[in-house]
Design brief:
Elements: H1 3-7, H2 25-29, H3 31-41, H4 43-70, H5 75-95
Length: about 110
Amino acid sequence: MDRDQKSLGDYPVQVEIDYPEKQSRLLALFSIPFFIIRFILLIPQFIVLYVIEIAALIAVWLNFFVVLFTGHSSKGMHNFVVGMLRWSTRVTAFMYGLTDKYPPFRLED
């Protein structure tokens, strides 16, 4: 384990994507049509995620004022924003072909 992995051990948000054991050459040949199909499959995800990202932006602004006046951050708002980032990362990973698992419609892990 190198120095960078040790320093990330206590970081609350980490992304791990397993490297595929075998990559299909046929899939690589037709990557553009598959990218378009993946993009079409993700349209419902984009719509819901857009609304949740707006809500997360509002939560961040509200949390700014909560911290400004009380000195403490809300754990619920933090969990909501982290969940939105998780969801967004899963959608992006599926869209770019890093994983073949369709992302679920949820904020939890």
